[in-house]
Protein backbone atom coordinates (compact mmCIF):
# COMPACT_ATOMS: atom_id res chain seq x y z
CA UNK A 1 0.00 0.00 0.00
CA UNK A 2 1.32 3.46 -0.86
CA UNK A 3 2.65 5.29 2.20
CA UNK A 4 0.34 8.21 1.40
CA UNK A 5 -2.64 6.02 2.24
CA UNK A 6 -1.15 5.12 5.62
CA UNK A 7 -0.54 8.72 6.68
CA UNK A 8 -3.07 9.65 9.34
CA UNK A 9 -2.80 13.35 8.49
CA UNK A 10 -4.09 12.76 4.98
CA UNK A 11 -7.13 10.87 6.22
CA UNK A 12 -7.85 13.52 8.84
CA UNK A 13 -7.70 16.28 6.23
CA UNK A 14 -9.85 14.39 3.74
CA UNK A 15 -12.44 13.71 6.45
CA UNK A 16 -12.35 17.36 7.60
CA UNK A 17 -12.76 18.77 4.08
CA UNK A 18 -15.51 16.28 3.28
CA UNK A 19 -17.49 17.00 6.44
CA UNK A 20 -17.13 20.76 5.95
CA UNK A 21 -18.24 20.72 2.32
CA UNK A 22 -20.89 17.98 2.34
CA UNK A 23 -23.54 20.28 3.91
CA UNK A 24 -22.41 23.09 1.58
CA UNK A 25 -23.03 20.86 -1.45
CA UNK A 26 -26.30 19.51 -0.09
CA UNK A 27 -27.80 22.89 0.78
CA UNK A 28 -26.39 24.47 -2.37
CA UNK A 29 -28.65 22.19 -4.41
CA UNK A 30 -31.53 21.29 -2.11
CA UNK A 31 -33.46 24.59 -2.33
CA UNK A 32 -33.00 24.98 -6.11
CA UNK A 33 -34.12 21.37 -6.57
CA UNK A 34 -37.21 22.03 -4.46
CA UNK A 35 -38.10 24.84 -6.84
CA UNK A 36 -37.63 22.56 -9.86
CA UNK A 37 -39.12 19.34 -8.48
CA UNK A 38 -41.48 20.55 -5.79
CA UNK A 39 -41.59 19.70 -2.12
CA UNK A 40 -42.04 21.24 1.29
CA UNK A 41 -39.04 22.93 2.96
CA UNK A 42 -40.68 23.46 6.35
CA UNK A 43 -38.47 22.08 9.10
CA UNK A 44 -36.32 20.12 6.65
CA UNK A 45 -33.08 22.18 6.67
CA UNK A 46 -31.61 20.66 9.88
CA UNK A 47 -32.43 17.18 8.57
CA UNK A 48 -30.63 17.92 5.31
CA UNK A 49 -27.55 18.99 7.26
CA UNK A 50 -27.51 15.97 9.57
CA UNK A 51 -28.15 13.55 6.71
CA UNK A 52 -25.39 15.06 4.55
CA UNK A 53 -22.89 14.77 7.40
CA UNK A 54 -23.88 11.19 8.13
CA UNK A 55 -23.80 10.16 4.47
CA UNK A 56 -20.42 11.84 3.97
CA UNK A 57 -18.88 10.06 6.96
CA UNK A 58 -20.40 6.76 5.86
CA UNK A 59 -19.02 7.16 2.31
CA UNK A 60 -15.48 7.60 3.60
CA UNK A 61 -15.74 4.50 5.76
CA UNK A 62 -17.37 2.44 3.00
CA UNK A 63 -14.76 3.38 0.40
CA UNK A 64 -12.03 2.39 2.81
CA UNK A 65 -13.65 -0.90 3.75
CA UNK A 66 -14.54 -1.87 0.17
CA UNK A 67 -11.34 -0.72 -1.56
CA UNK A 68 -10.77 -4.23 -2.97
CA UNK A 69 -14.27 -4.46 -4.51
CA UNK A 70 -15.36 -3.43 -7.98
CA UNK A 71 -16.23 0.12 -8.91
CA UNK A 72 -19.94 -0.66 -9.23
CA UNK A 73 -20.14 -2.18 -5.76
CA UNK A 74 -18.31 0.78 -4.25
CA UNK A 75 -20.56 3.28 -6.04
CA UNK A 76 -23.71 1.47 -4.92
CA UNK A 77 -22.46 1.21 -1.35
CA UNK A 78 -21.80 4.95 -1.29
CA UNK A 79 -24.92 6.19 -3.08
CA UNK A 80 -27.80 3.90 -2.06
CA UNK A 81 -27.85 5.08 1.59
CA UNK A 82 -28.41 8.64 0.33
CA UNK A 83 -31.59 7.52 -1.43
CA UNK A 84 -32.75 5.50 1.56
CA UNK A 85 -32.14 8.50 3.85
CA UNK A 86 -34.18 10.77 1.56
CA UNK A 87 -37.09 8.31 1.63
CA UNK A 88 -36.87 7.85 5.40
CA UNK A 89 -36.85 11.61 5.98
CA UNK A 90 -39.69 12.25 3.55
CA UNK A 91 -37.62 14.65 1.50
CA UNK A 92 -38.50 13.30 -1.91
CA UNK A 93 -36.31 13.47 -5.02
CA UNK A 94 -34.92 16.92 -4.15
CA UNK A 95 -33.37 15.63 -0.93
CA UNK A 96 -32.16 12.43 -2.60
CA UNK A 97 -30.31 14.39 -5.28
CA UNK A 98 -28.92 16.83 -2.70
CA UNK A 99 -27.55 13.96 -0.61
CA UNK A 100 -26.08 12.36 -3.71
CA UNK A 101 -24.30 15.65 -4.32
CA UNK A 102 -22.86 15.40 -0.81
CA UNK A 103 -21.66 11.87 -1.56
CA UNK A 104 -20.16 13.00 -4.85
CA UNK A 105 -18.34 15.83 -3.10
CA UNK A 106 -16.92 13.44 -0.52
CA UNK A 107 -15.72 10.93 -3.10
CA UNK A 108 -14.23 13.66 -5.28
CA UNK A 109 -12.29 15.10 -2.32
CA UNK A 110 -11.01 11.64 -1.44
CA UNK A 111 -9.99 10.90 -5.03
CA UNK A 112 -8.41 14.26 -5.77
CA UNK A 113 -6.64 15.05 -2.53
CA UNK A 114 -5.23 12.10 -0.67
CA UNK A 115 -2.26 11.34 -2.96
CA UNK A 116 -1.61 14.93 -4.03
CA UNK A 117 -0.81 16.43 -0.64
CA UNK A 118 2.80 17.46 0.09
CA UNK A 119 4.87 14.59 1.48
CA UNK A 120 5.95 16.90 4.30
CA UNK A 121 2.44 16.63 5.70
CA UNK A 122 2.97 13.01 6.72
CA UNK A 123 3.91 12.78 10.37
CA UNK A 124 3.44 16.47 11.16
CA UNK A 125 0.63 15.82 13.63
CA UNK A 126 1.38 12.28 14.73
CA UNK A 127 4.83 13.32 15.94
CA UNK A 128 3.22 16.01 18.12
CA UNK A 129 0.26 14.40 19.87
CA UNK A 130 -0.75 17.59 21.65
CA UNK A 131 -0.95 19.49 18.39
CA UNK A 132 -2.91 16.63 16.83
CA UNK A 133 -5.45 16.67 19.66
CA UNK A 134 -5.81 20.47 19.37
CA UNK A 135 -6.16 20.23 15.58
CA UNK A 136 -8.89 17.58 15.84
CA UNK A 137 -10.85 19.59 18.42
CA UNK A 138 -10.67 22.75 16.34
CA UNK A 139 -11.50 20.82 13.14
CA UNK A 140 -14.65 19.49 14.78
CA UNK A 141 -15.55 23.06 15.74
CA UNK A 142 -15.13 24.20 12.10
CA UNK A 143 -17.24 21.28 10.84
CA UNK A 144 -20.00 22.15 13.32
CA UNK A 145 -19.92 25.84 12.42
CA UNK A 146 -20.02 25.04 8.70
CA UNK A 147 -22.98 22.72 9.28
CA UNK A 148 -24.88 25.36 11.23
CA UNK A 149 -24.16 28.03 8.60
CA UNK A 150 -25.34 25.69 5.84
CA UNK A 151 -28.57 25.09 7.76
CA UNK A 152 -29.21 28.85 7.96
CA UNK A 153 -28.54 29.13 4.24
CA UNK A 154 -30.98 26.28 3.62
CA UNK A 155 -33.71 27.98 5.60
CA UNK A 156 -33.51 31.57 6.93
CA UNK A 157 -36.26 30.63 9.38
CA UNK A 158 -33.38 29.32 11.54
CA UNK A 159 -31.43 32.51 12.41
CA UNK A 160 -30.03 30.78 15.50
CA UNK A 161 -27.70 28.87 13.16
CA UNK A 162 -26.14 31.94 11.55
CA UNK A 163 -22.49 32.75 12.23
CA UNK A 164 -23.41 35.59 14.58
CA UNK A 165 -27.00 34.97 15.72
CA UNK A 166 -26.94 37.85 18.22
CA UNK A 167 -26.10 40.43 15.54
CA UNK A 168 -29.45 41.44 13.93
CA UNK A 169 -27.79 43.25 11.03
CA UNK A 170 -25.77 40.19 10.04
CA UNK A 171 -28.78 37.90 10.38
CA UNK A 172 -30.98 40.07 8.15
CA UNK A 173 -28.43 41.54 5.73
CA UNK A 174 -27.78 39.97 2.35
CA UNK A 175 -25.42 41.45 -0.22
CA UNK A 176 -26.78 38.94 -2.72
CA UNK A 177 -30.18 40.62 -2.49
CA UNK A 178 -28.60 43.68 -4.12
CA UNK A 179 -27.32 41.63 -7.05
CA UNK A 180 -30.65 39.88 -7.58
CA UNK A 181 -32.68 43.07 -7.16
CA UNK A 182 -30.42 44.87 -9.67
CA UNK A 183 -30.91 42.03 -12.18
CA UNK A 184 -34.67 42.20 -11.71
CA UNK A 185 -34.66 45.98 -12.17
CA UNK A 186 -32.63 45.56 -15.36
CA UNK A 187 -35.08 42.97 -16.69
CA UNK A 188 -37.87 45.44 -15.93
CA UNK A 189 -36.19 48.00 -18.19
CA UNK A 190 -34.40 50.17 -15.62
CA UNK A 191 -31.14 51.61 -17.02
CA UNK A 192 -29.64 53.04 -13.82
CA UNK A 193 -29.78 49.95 -11.63
CA UNK A 194 -27.22 51.59 -9.29
CA UNK A 195 -29.59 54.33 -8.12
CA UNK A 196 -30.65 53.46 -4.57
CA UNK A 197 -32.39 56.75 -3.79
CA UNK A 198 -35.79 55.01 -3.72
CA UNK A 199 -34.59 52.41 -1.22
CA UNK A 200 -35.07 52.85 2.56
CA UNK A 201 -32.17 52.44 5.02
CA UNK A 202 -30.33 49.12 5.00
CA UNK A 203 -31.79 47.98 8.31
CA UNK A 204 -35.36 48.06 6.97
CA UNK A 205 -36.98 44.89 5.55
CA UNK A 206 -39.19 46.46 2.90
CA UNK A 207 -39.41 44.00 0.00
CA UNK A 208 -41.46 40.85 0.79
CA UNK A 209 -39.75 38.87 -1.98
CA UNK A 210 -36.49 39.08 -0.02
CA UNK A 211 -37.86 38.97 3.54
CA UNK A 212 -36.50 38.54 6.15
CA UNK A 213 -33.49 40.16 4.48
CA UNK A 214 -32.73 43.79 3.77
CA UNK A 215 -32.28 44.67 0.12
CA UNK A 216 -28.73 45.89 -0.46
CA UNK A 217 -27.27 48.29 -3.02
CA UNK A 218 -25.50 47.14 -6.21
CA UNK A 219 -21.95 48.57 -6.16
CA UNK A 220 -20.33 46.21 -8.69
CA UNK A 221 -19.31 47.04 -12.27
CA UNK A 222 -21.97 46.32 -14.90
CA UNK A 223 -20.12 43.21 -16.14
CA UNK A 224 -21.00 41.49 -12.86
CA UNK A 225 -24.63 41.90 -13.82
CA UNK A 226 -24.02 39.02 -16.26
CA UNK A 227 -23.50 36.74 -13.25
CA UNK A 228 -26.55 38.12 -11.44
CA UNK A 229 -28.68 37.65 -14.56
CA UNK A 230 -27.41 34.10 -14.94
CA UNK A 231 -28.37 33.35 -11.34
CA UNK A 232 -31.86 34.87 -11.76
CA UNK A 233 -32.42 32.99 -15.02
CA UNK A 234 -31.16 29.68 -13.59
CA UNK A 235 -33.47 29.45 -10.59
CA UNK A 236 -36.42 31.44 -9.28
CA UNK A 237 -37.03 32.47 -5.70
CA UNK A 238 -34.50 34.31 -3.58
CA UNK A 239 -34.03 31.48 -1.05
CA UNK A 240 -33.06 29.10 -3.85
CA UNK A 241 -30.79 31.69 -5.47
CA UNK A 242 -29.14 32.35 -2.12
CA UNK A 243 -28.49 28.63 -1.57
CA UNK A 244 -27.10 28.05 -5.07
CA UNK A 245 -24.77 31.06 -4.76
CA UNK A 246 -23.58 29.87 -1.35
CA UNK A 247 -22.79 26.39 -2.65
CA UNK A 248 -20.91 27.74 -5.67
CA UNK A 249 -18.82 30.23 -3.69
CA UNK A 250 -18.10 27.81 -0.87
CA UNK A 251 -16.81 25.15 -3.25
CA UNK A 252 -14.71 27.57 -5.30
CA UNK A 253 -13.02 28.97 -2.19
CA UNK A 254 -12.27 25.49 -0.84
CA UNK A 255 -10.83 24.36 -4.17
CA UNK A 256 -8.64 27.44 -4.49
CA UNK A 257 -7.30 27.09 -0.94
CA UNK A 258 -6.33 23.50 -1.68
CA UNK A 259 -4.83 24.24 -5.11
CA UNK A 260 -2.67 27.11 -3.84
CA UNK A 261 -1.37 25.08 -0.86
CA UNK A 262 -0.68 22.06 -3.08
CA UNK A 263 1.19 24.25 -5.58
CA UNK A 264 3.30 25.87 -2.86
CA UNK A 265 4.21 22.41 -1.61
CA UNK A 266 6.82 21.55 0.99
CA UNK A 267 6.35 22.31 4.65
CA UNK A 268 4.63 25.63 3.91
CA UNK A 269 2.07 23.95 1.71
CA UNK A 270 1.52 21.19 4.27
CA UNK A 271 0.89 23.63 7.12
CA UNK A 272 -1.34 25.74 4.85
CA UNK A 273 -3.44 22.63 4.16
CA UNK A 274 -3.78 21.95 7.88
CA UNK A 275 -4.93 25.53 8.41
CA UNK A 276 -7.17 25.64 5.33
CA UNK A 277 -10.36 24.71 7.24
CA UNK A 278 -10.03 27.78 9.45
CA UNK A 279 -9.22 30.03 6.50
CA UNK A 280 -12.33 28.67 4.77
CA UNK A 281 -14.42 29.42 7.85
CA UNK A 282 -13.06 32.99 7.91
CA UNK A 283 -14.82 33.40 4.57
CA UNK A 284 -18.05 32.30 6.26
CA UNK A 285 -18.98 35.93 6.95
CA UNK A 286 -18.92 36.72 3.22
CA UNK A 287 -20.60 33.39 2.38
CA UNK A 288 -23.48 34.07 4.77
CA UNK A 289 -24.03 37.53 3.31
CA UNK A 290 -23.58 36.29 -0.26
CA UNK A 291 -20.99 38.95 -1.05
CA UNK A 292 -19.08 38.56 -4.31
CA UNK A 293 -15.76 39.45 -2.65
CA UNK A 294 -15.05 35.83 -1.72
CA UNK A 295 -15.59 34.55 -5.26
CA UNK A 296 -13.58 37.39 -6.80
CA UNK A 297 -10.56 36.82 -4.53
CA UNK A 298 -10.62 33.09 -5.21
CA UNK A 299 -10.89 33.67 -8.98
CA UNK A 300 -7.96 36.11 -8.85
CA UNK A 301 -5.72 33.62 -7.04
CA UNK A 302 -6.84 30.81 -9.36
CA UNK A 303 -5.98 33.00 -12.34
CA UNK A 304 -2.45 33.72 -11.14
CA UNK A 305 -1.99 30.05 -10.32
CA UNK A 306 -3.17 29.08 -13.82
CA UNK A 307 -0.49 31.35 -15.30
CA UNK A 308 2.15 29.55 -13.23
CA UNK A 309 0.87 26.20 -14.50
CA UNK A 310 1.13 27.44 -18.09
CA UNK A 311 -2.62 27.51 -18.57
CA UNK A 312 -2.44 31.02 -19.90
CA UNK A 313 -5.85 31.30 -21.53
CA UNK A 314 -7.60 30.09 -18.36
CA UNK A 315 -5.53 32.46 -16.24
CA UNK A 316 -6.33 35.42 -18.46
CA UNK A 317 -10.03 34.64 -18.40
CA UNK A 318 -10.17 34.27 -14.62
CA UNK A 319 -8.18 37.43 -13.87
CA UNK A 320 -10.14 39.46 -16.44
CA UNK A 321 -13.45 38.29 -14.98
CA UNK A 322 -12.32 39.03 -11.42
CA UNK A 323 -11.21 42.53 -12.45
CA UNK A 324 -14.41 43.33 -14.29
CA UNK A 325 -16.48 41.99 -11.40
CA UNK A 326 -14.80 44.09 -8.72
CA UNK A 327 -12.00 46.22 -10.25
CA UNK A 328 -9.44 45.81 -7.42
CA UNK A 329 -7.86 42.60 -8.84
CA UNK A 330 -6.74 44.76 -11.75
CA UNK A 331 -3.68 45.61 -9.64
CA UNK A 332 -2.39 42.12 -10.41
CA UNK A 333 -2.32 43.28 -14.02
CA UNK A 334 0.33 45.80 -12.95
CA UNK A 335 2.31 42.88 -11.50
CA UNK A 336 2.14 41.07 -14.84
CA UNK A 337 3.32 44.14 -16.75
CA UNK A 338 6.23 44.87 -14.41
CA UNK A 339 7.31 41.23 -14.64
CA UNK A 340 7.15 41.53 -18.45
CA UNK A 341 4.77 38.64 -18.72
CA UNK A 342 3.46 40.06 -21.94
CA UNK A 343 1.48 37.01 -23.04
CA UNK A 344 -0.34 36.73 -19.72
CA UNK A 345 -1.09 40.45 -19.69
CA UNK A 346 -2.26 40.39 -23.31
CA UNK A 347 -4.53 37.40 -22.74
CA UNK A 348 -6.02 39.05 -19.67
CA UNK A 349 -6.63 42.24 -21.65
CA UNK A 350 -8.15 40.30 -24.56
CA UNK A 351 -10.43 38.34 -22.26
CA UNK A 352 -11.47 41.60 -20.61
CA UNK A 353 -12.35 43.12 -23.97
CA UNK A 354 -14.46 40.09 -24.85
CA UNK A 355 -16.30 40.28 -21.52
CA UNK A 356 -16.94 43.99 -21.97
CA UNK A 357 -18.28 43.39 -25.48
CA UNK A 358 -20.48 40.60 -24.16
CA UNK A 359 -21.73 42.96 -21.47
CA UNK A 360 -22.49 45.66 -24.02
CA UNK A 361 -24.44 43.18 -26.14
CA UNK A 362 -26.41 41.61 -23.28
CA UNK A 363 -26.75 44.58 -20.95
CA UNK A 364 -26.51 47.49 -23.35
CA UNK A 365 -24.60 50.79 -23.23
CA UNK A 366 -27.04 52.69 -21.00
CA UNK A 367 -26.25 50.63 -17.91
CA UNK A 368 -22.52 51.05 -18.55
CA UNK A 369 -23.01 54.79 -18.95
CA UNK A 370 -24.90 54.91 -15.65
CA UNK A 371 -22.03 53.10 -13.96
CA UNK A 372 -19.46 55.61 -15.22
CA UNK A 373 -21.48 58.76 -14.66
CA UNK A 374 -23.52 57.87 -11.58
CA UNK A 375 -21.85 55.13 -9.55
CA UNK A 376 -18.09 55.58 -10.00
CA UNK A 377 -17.98 59.18 -8.67
CA UNK A 378 -20.15 58.23 -5.69
CA UNK A 379 -18.03 55.19 -4.90
CA UNK A 380 -14.82 57.19 -5.09
CA UNK A 381 -16.14 59.86 -2.74
CA UNK A 382 -17.74 57.37 -0.37
CA UNK A 383 -21.18 58.91 -0.90
CA UNK A 384 -22.71 55.67 -2.19
CA UNK A 385 -21.99 53.93 1.12
CA UNK A 386 -22.38 57.01 3.31
CA UNK A 387 -25.14 55.44 5.40
CA UNK A 388 -22.54 53.02 6.79
CA UNK A 389 -20.76 55.95 8.44
CA UNK A 390 -23.75 56.62 10.68
CA UNK A 391 -23.21 53.49 12.75
CA UNK A 392 -20.31 53.36 15.24
CA UNK A 393 -20.09 49.58 15.04
CA UNK A 394 -19.70 49.71 11.27
CA UNK A 395 -17.04 52.40 11.58
CA UNK A 396 -14.95 50.41 14.05
CA UNK A 397 -15.16 47.28 11.88
CA UNK A 398 -13.87 49.23 8.86
CA UNK A 399 -10.30 48.13 7.99
CA UNK A 400 -9.75 50.62 5.14
CA UNK A 401 -7.51 53.69 5.51
CA UNK A 402 -10.49 55.82 4.43
CA UNK A 403 -12.14 54.96 7.76
CA UNK A 404 -9.32 56.19 10.04
CA UNK A 405 -10.62 59.79 10.41
CA UNK A 406 -14.09 58.45 11.28
CA UNK A 407 -12.53 56.48 14.12
CA UNK A 408 -10.56 59.54 15.25
CA UNK A 409 -13.83 61.45 15.36
CA UNK A 410 -15.30 58.73 17.60
CA UNK A 411 -12.30 59.22 19.88
CA UNK A 412 -13.19 62.89 20.27
CA UNK A 413 -11.01 64.54 17.62
CA UNK A 414 -12.57 67.54 15.86
CA UNK A 415 -12.21 67.06 12.10
CA UNK A 416 -14.15 66.56 8.89
CA UNK A 417 -13.80 62.78 8.39
CA UNK A 418 -15.04 62.87 4.81
CA UNK A 419 -12.48 65.45 3.72
CA UNK A 420 -9.59 63.79 5.52
CA UNK A 421 -10.68 60.34 4.36
CA UNK A 422 -10.64 61.38 0.72
CA UNK A 423 -7.15 62.85 1.12
CA UNK A 424 -5.92 59.64 2.74
CA UNK A 425 -7.50 57.60 -0.05
CA UNK A 426 -5.59 59.55 -2.73
CA UNK A 427 -2.24 58.98 -1.01
CA UNK A 428 -3.11 55.34 -0.36
CA UNK A 429 -3.76 54.62 -4.05
CA UNK A 430 -0.28 55.88 -4.98
CA UNK A 431 1.34 53.82 -2.21
CA UNK A 432 -0.52 50.68 -3.20
CA UNK A 433 0.59 50.94 -6.83
CA UNK A 434 4.15 51.49 -5.61
CA UNK A 435 3.97 48.43 -3.38
CA UNK A 436 2.68 46.34 -6.28
CA UNK A 437 5.51 47.49 -8.55
CA UNK A 438 8.11 46.75 -5.86
CA UNK A 439 6.64 43.31 -5.19
CA UNK A 440 6.53 42.45 -8.89
CA UNK A 441 10.25 43.19 -9.33
CA UNK A 442 11.23 40.49 -6.83
CA UNK A 443 12.19 37.00 -7.94
CA UNK A 444 10.83 34.61 -5.34
CA UNK A 445 9.84 31.07 -4.48
CA UNK A 446 6.30 29.77 -4.68
CA UNK A 447 5.36 30.46 -1.07
CA UNK A 448 6.38 34.10 -1.27
CA UNK A 449 4.76 34.50 -4.68
CA UNK A 450 1.43 33.33 -3.29
CA UNK A 451 1.63 35.64 -0.27
CA UNK A 452 2.63 38.51 -2.57
CA UNK A 453 -0.45 37.97 -4.76
CA UNK A 454 -2.65 37.94 -1.67
CA UNK A 455 -0.99 41.06 -0.26
CA UNK A 456 -1.49 42.95 -3.54
CA UNK A 457 -5.13 41.84 -3.64
CA UNK A 458 -5.64 42.90 -0.01
CA UNK A 459 -4.02 46.29 -0.49
CA UNK A 460 -6.16 46.90 -3.56
CA UNK A 461 -9.37 45.76 -1.83
CA UNK A 462 -8.82 48.13 1.10
CA UNK A 463 -9.07 51.11 -1.26
CA UNK A 464 -12.84 50.91 -0.97
CA UNK A 465 -14.15 53.43 1.60
CA UNK A 466 -15.94 50.90 3.84
CA UNK A 467 -14.38 47.44 3.62
CA UNK A 468 -16.11 45.05 6.07
CA UNK A 469 -14.32 42.49 8.31
CA UNK A 470 -14.46 39.65 5.79
CA UNK A 471 -11.82 41.50 3.78
CA UNK A 472 -9.43 40.11 6.41
CA UNK A 473 -9.84 36.60 5.03
CA UNK A 474 -7.04 37.19 2.53
CA UNK A 475 -4.83 38.25 5.47
CA UNK A 476 -5.59 34.97 7.26
CA UNK A 477 -4.80 33.17 4.02
CA UNK A 478 -1.38 34.88 4.07
CA UNK A 479 -0.85 33.85 7.69
CA UNK A 480 -1.65 30.22 6.82
CA UNK A 481 1.02 30.27 4.10
CA UNK A 482 3.57 31.90 6.41
CA UNK A 483 2.94 29.51 9.31
CA UNK A 484 5.04 26.79 7.67
CA UNK A 485 8.15 28.90 8.24
CA UNK A 486 7.66 28.90 12.01
CA UNK A 487 10.08 26.54 13.73
CA UNK A 488 9.90 27.63 17.38
CA UNK A 489 7.31 28.09 20.09
CA UNK A 490 8.20 31.76 20.27
CA UNK A 491 7.51 32.22 16.57
CA UNK A 492 4.22 30.36 16.89
CA UNK A 493 3.25 32.58 19.81
CA UNK A 494 4.05 35.77 17.87
CA UNK A 495 2.10 34.60 14.81
CA UNK A 496 -0.87 33.66 16.98
CA UNK A 497 -0.76 36.99 18.82
CA UNK A 498 -0.63 38.92 15.54
CA UNK A 499 -3.59 36.93 14.22
CA UNK A 500 -5.71 37.67 17.28
CA UNK A 501 -4.62 41.34 17.21
CA UNK A 502 -6.47 41.73 13.90
CA UNK A 503 -9.68 40.84 15.77
CA UNK A 504 -9.35 43.61 18.36
CA UNK A 505 -12.45 45.51 17.11
CA UNK A 506 -14.57 42.52 18.18
CA UNK A 507 -13.73 43.14 21.86
CA UNK A 508 -16.64 44.68 23.82
CA UNK A 509 -15.47 48.15 24.88
CA UNK A 510 -16.64 51.77 25.12
CA UNK A 511 -16.95 53.56 21.81
CA UNK A 512 -13.75 55.61 22.05
CA UNK A 513 -11.69 52.63 23.24
CA UNK A 514 -13.13 50.45 20.51
CA UNK A 515 -12.15 53.03 17.89
CA UNK A 516 -8.58 53.07 19.26
CA UNK A 517 -8.43 49.27 19.21
CA UNK A 518 -9.74 49.31 15.66
CA UNK A 519 -7.00 51.68 14.50
CA UNK A 520 -4.38 49.49 16.19
CA UNK A 521 -5.80 46.38 14.51
CA UNK A 522 -5.87 48.21 11.20
CA UNK A 523 -2.15 49.00 11.41
CA UNK A 524 -1.44 45.37 12.33
CA UNK A 525 -3.25 44.31 9.15
CA UNK A 526 -1.39 46.85 7.01
CA UNK A 527 1.86 45.76 8.66
CA UNK A 528 1.24 42.12 7.73
CA UNK A 529 0.56 43.10 4.13
CA UNK A 530 3.60 45.34 3.92
CA UNK A 531 5.81 42.68 5.49
CA UNK A 532 4.54 40.14 2.95
CA UNK A 533 5.86 42.37 0.17
CA UNK A 534 9.08 43.71 1.72
CA UNK A 535 10.28 40.51 3.41
CA UNK A 536 13.48 38.73 2.45
CA UNK A 537 13.31 36.75 -0.77
CA UNK A 538 13.46 32.97 -0.75
CA UNK A 539 15.15 30.75 -3.34
CA UNK A 540 13.19 30.17 -6.51
CA UNK A 541 11.62 26.73 -6.39
CA UNK A 542 12.69 24.12 -8.95
CA UNK A 543 9.91 22.71 -11.11
CA UNK A 544 7.84 20.14 -9.22
CA UNK A 545 7.06 16.81 -10.76
CA UNK A 546 3.44 15.78 -10.67
CA UNK A 547 2.85 13.00 -8.14
CA UNK A 548 2.09 9.59 -9.47
CA UNK A 549 -1.57 8.82 -9.76
CA UNK A 550 -2.86 6.39 -7.15
CA UNK A 551 -6.18 4.59 -6.91
CA UNK A 552 -8.66 6.84 -5.14
CA UNK A 553 -10.47 3.84 -3.65
CA UNK A 554 -8.03 3.73 -0.78
CA UNK A 555 -9.39 7.03 0.54
Terminal residue distance: 12 Å
Largest sheet: none
Q: Would you list the SSEs in sequence order as H and E?
A: HHHHHHHHHHHHHHHHHHHHHHHH
Number of helices: 24
Helix content: 55-70%
Instruction: Identify the overall geometry.
Output: globular
Overall pLDDT metric:
88
Supply the helix-strand structural class.
mainly alpha
Which blocks of ≥5 consecutive residues have pLDDT under 50? 543-555
Q: What radius of gyration results from the CA coordinates?
A: 23 Å
User: How large a portion of the residues is in β-strands, by DSSP E?
Assistant: under 5%
Number of strands: 0
Helix-strand blueprint:
Layout: H1 3-6, H2 8-37, H3 45-65, H4 71-89, H5 92-113, H6 129-154, H7 168-172, H8 175-187, H9 225-234, H10 238-264, H11 266-282, H12 284-289, H13 293-308, H14 312-326, H15 331-338, H16 342-362, H17 365-381, H18 392-396, H19 404-410, H20 417-440, H21 446-461, H22 473-482, H23 489-501, H24 511-534
Helix pairs in contact: 2-3, 2-5, 2-6, 2-10, 3-4, 3-5, 3-6, 4-5, 6-11, 8-9, 10-11, 10-13, 11-22, 13-14, 13-21, 14-16, 15-20, 19-20, 19-24, 20-21, 21-22, 21-24
Note down, in words, how this protein is organized.
By secondary structure, the protein is an all-alpha fold. It has 24 helices and no strands. α2 (8-37) crosses α3 (45-65), α14 crosses α16 (342-362) and α19 (404-410) runs antiparallel to α24 (511-534). The longest helix has 30 residues, at 8-37. The protein is globular and about 65 Å long. It starts with a helix and ends in a 21-residue tail after the last helix. The model is unreliable at 543-555 (pLDDT under 50).
